[in-house]
Write a structure and sequence with these properties.
mainly alpha
């Protein structure tokens, strides 16, 4: 993920475009190219790694928050668009993983 840490008023168009390119367009392109393989194998999972910052906004993280929120909604939109197909191939799934979620436990101390 690309995370420019600057206030919105200082965020450059280049930083914005890089954040969108890395955090959102990268996932989109990977999904587009992975889906035919998943269809052929009739199984697999597309996992988008999101963040709590896709749900809440914090200062200095406008581009990151926006792209992670968009990634969460991309997962939902893909699942909605592919609902009929996915109901015939229940072993193909589109999910969003939020490593900051305390229920996931990825950031817990041992």
């Amino acid at each position: 993920a690309f995370t420019p840490t600057v206030s919105f008023s200082e965020l450059s168009e280049e930083q914005w475009n890089t954040a969108v390119g890395v955090n959102l367009t990268g996932a989109f392109l990977l999904d587009k190219h992975a889906l035919p393989w998943l269809r052929r194998s009739e199984s697999g999972v597309i996992i988008h790694v999101a963040s709590q910052l896709g749900h809440v906004a914090v200062p200095g993280q406008a581009a990151y928050c926006a792209t992670k929120a968009a990634l969460i909604h991309l997962s939902r939109a893909m699942a909605a668009d592919l609902a009929d197909e996915l109901s015939r191939c229940p072993d193909i799934r589109v999910i969003t993983l939020d490593p900051d979620d305390p229920h996931v436990g990825l950031n817990r101390e041992p």
